[in-house]
Amino acid sequence: MRLKPSARMKRVSCLLTHLYGLLLRTYPRRFGIEFGEETQDVFATAVDDAIIEGRPPLSVLFFRELRDWPVALWREYRHALEQEGLEEVEMEASHASNTFPSDVPALKKGPSPWVETLAAMTPWLLQPVLFLIGLVAIPIVDNIAIPESIGVIFGSLMVLLAIAGWMVVSGIGLVKGFPRWSFPYWSLFLLSSLYMMNAATPGFWVFGYTFGRGELWGWLAWIPIGLVVVIVFLLLRTLRPIRQLGRAIWYDWTLLSFTLYGTLPWVMLIVYDEVHGEGPIMAILMLLLSAGTLLYMRSIKTWQRAFSLVGGLSFTWLIATFDLANYWGGRQEEWMSKSGDWAETIFSMSKAGGILLLVLLAPLVLGFISSISRHKRLPRMS
Amino acid sequence: MDTISTTPLTETTFFILLSLSPAPKHGYAIMKEVLALSNRRIVFSTGTLYGAIRRLLEQGWIERVNDPQPNKTSRQRKAYTLTEQGRRVLNAEVERLKNMVDLVKRRVVENPS
């Protein structure tokens, strides 16, 4: 039955075309630039014709687009990845195979700029800064009578602000194709999400919802990371940052080590669990770790970078070992079956430190494989 | 690339090339023509159609031209037309299908059931 398009149907047509425009924004950027306008025109024309034919053809049209959208999306992103891969191969063929590709942000020559170095050091500098703020603020806050509800909301807002800040910084790193400074942010982000899945934050208030006692975060812990990834990919509409990440790690294995180094703040928190008055020593240890980061970011050669991370971890772990041995030596808490032993603490910490060092250097294997693979591509001298 | 020796075309590719053989067409006209040629059996979504068009452009079997008729907003519309290579591919496919039909006919004549 052919109907005249009413004003209502024209509004439906506009709405559907607008919704279709949103679907189009999920396609790869290149596809959008080349065909976006055209496909939108075609869809609008198809909708207008379907309206004249009646409601069923209109529904069929829209649901057909929706049905084919995931397959078309998969096909176009796969094609975009292949195209970008071919372009990278062409670019690398024009360089000597023992030089780093110039289009990967994490592989820029020379020491990292000071701004990027400071950005990389921030995850380790946070604790000392918060410790200093706490030294000043806590005595003041203790003397002010704050209602508990206000305290809970304020505390929750501070945590949400911190999470939002982390999301923004990590998102910037993703947009820029994983520059060197962003690697520890992502490792901390991933590790924190993993940890929070099995953590409870009773009383934590977020967007009108308050977590109950014993209520674990579960899958909710992955919402911040998920949001960052989705928003960035909707903005960029390319998987290029992921390719750049893969190539960066392939050409410089120390980036993977640096990612693992980024988890050390968490490791320190675990190691200093149940230790009272740990604020000052934790601040010192974080500063030592950040010194390793500083040297890493300012290094030029691969061996210098590796040495910075190994040195940072080793020196920090040595200080922590003796500090903990001194703390636990002869001390017995309620939950302990016997008092702590100096030698036992040294032995346990040394074992853990050795394992950490091995884990930190494990990406060296990848570096070895990558180096052989690249040297095989060097032209043979006749 | 030797286009004559390419593998059999998919239905999507065949019908798009067939729809473009008489004259250049814009995207919506290709959709309508394919719908008619296939007796309403092949209905393209825009994603499927333009994915195929992108592939055919890359293979050099079709090329863009300006559509002589502007759209409702008077904006210049893009149309597509067969290239020489595309026309050869289409002719080769038609020849292949004719040979298959002839083979079936001969078989039926030799062995009528």
What's the main sheet of chain A like?
2 strands, antiparallel
Q: Proportion of β residues of chain A?
A: under 5%
> How many strands appear in the DSSP assignment of chain B?
3
| Largest interface: pair, residues per side | A-B, 22 and 19 residues
Q: Could you report the average pLDDT of chain A, rounded to the nearest whole number? A: 83
Look at the helices and sheets of chain A and give the structural class.
mainly alpha
CATH fold title of chain B: Arc Repressor Mutant, subunit A
Largest sheet of chain B: 3 strands, antiparallel
Helix content percent band of chain B: 40-55%
Low-confidence stretches of chain A: none
User: In CATH's first tier, which class of chain B applies?
Assistant: Mainly Alpha
Give, in order, the helices and strands of chain A. HHHHHHEEHHHHHHHH
C-alpha termini separation of chain B: 43 Å
Q: What is the count of DSSP helices of chain B, taking H or I runs of 4+ residues?
A: 4
Gross geometry of chain A = globular
Structural class of chain B: mainly alpha
Total domains of chain A: 2
Name the helix and strand elements of chain B from N-terminus to C-terminus, one letter apiece: HEHHEEH
Proportion of residues in β-strands of chain B = 5-15%
Q: What is the structure about, briefly put?
A:
The complex is a heterodimer of chains A (382) and B (113). By secondary structure, chain A is an all-alpha fold.
